[in-house]
Amino acid sequence: MNWTDERVEKLKKLWSEGLSASQIAAQLGGVSRNAVIGKVHRLSLPGRAKAGGTTTPARPKRATSAPRAPNYAARAVTRTVARPAGATVLKEEVAVDLVAEQEIAPEANIVLPMSRRLELTQLTERTCKWPIGDPLKEEFHFCGNDSPESSPYCNYHARLAYQPSAERRRIR
């Protein structure tokens, strides 16, 4: 199949209208989708716009070291994002509203119980079995404070171990 000037012009027109390579190949007849894609690249045509498509910027990565709460003070920032357009990827400037993030300070009235520093052989059914430290180090020990009958941990460590699922989702 030869690409005549007339067929090339029709290809350019259909491509600028946002038709896919398969749709263009069907309208031109006697040419495959891959042939249309190859010709578009050789002509260096700009990426076609998707019908009804929206540009969604990539989400910025967040640090996972500490839980954060939104400050709700939005500010506009311009970001360069890449989006697919047919067989090409376009880069464009997009204004993005970012929400400033703020560190959550722990409550000041939390009382951290003092550990009794028990070894594994000293644990009973009524002692907290919360491990503290690196098991391969000499200073490794267990909390050892009194635990309720229904839990292997003291009240403080039970709150750390058994968080409600809604609370875990909110922190992430």
Please describe the topology of this protein.
Blueprint: H1 5-16, H2 21-28, H3 33-42, E1 68-85, E2 88-103, E3 131-132, E4 141-142, H4 155-161, H5 165-171
How would you describe this protein?
This protein is α+β, with helices and mostly antiparallel strands. The protein folds into three domains: 5-42; 68-103, no CATH class; 120-171, no CATH class. Helix content is 26%, strand content 22%. The chain contains five helices and four strands; from the N terminus they run H-H-H-E-E-E-E-H-H. A two-stranded antiparallel sheet has the order 1-2. It has a two-stranded antiparallel ribbon with strand order 3-4. A hairpin with an 8-residue loop joins strand 3 and strand 4. Helix 2 (21-28) crosses helix 3 (33-42). The two termini are 57 Å apart.
Number of strands: 4
Range of helix content: 25-40%
Q: How far is it from the N-terminal to the C-terminal residue, by CA?
A: 57 Å
Integer count of domains = 3
| Main pleated sheet | 2 strands, antiparallel
Total of helices: 5
Beta percentage is 15-25%
Summed over residues and divided by their number, the pLDDT gives a mean of: 76
Question: Structural class, from secondary structure content?
Answer: alpha+beta
Parts with pLDDT < 50 across at least 5 consecutive residues = 63-67
**N-to-C SSE series?**
HHHEEEEHH
Q: State the strand order across the main sheet.
A: 1-2
How much is the radius of gyration in Å?
Answer: 31 Å
Shape: rod-shaped
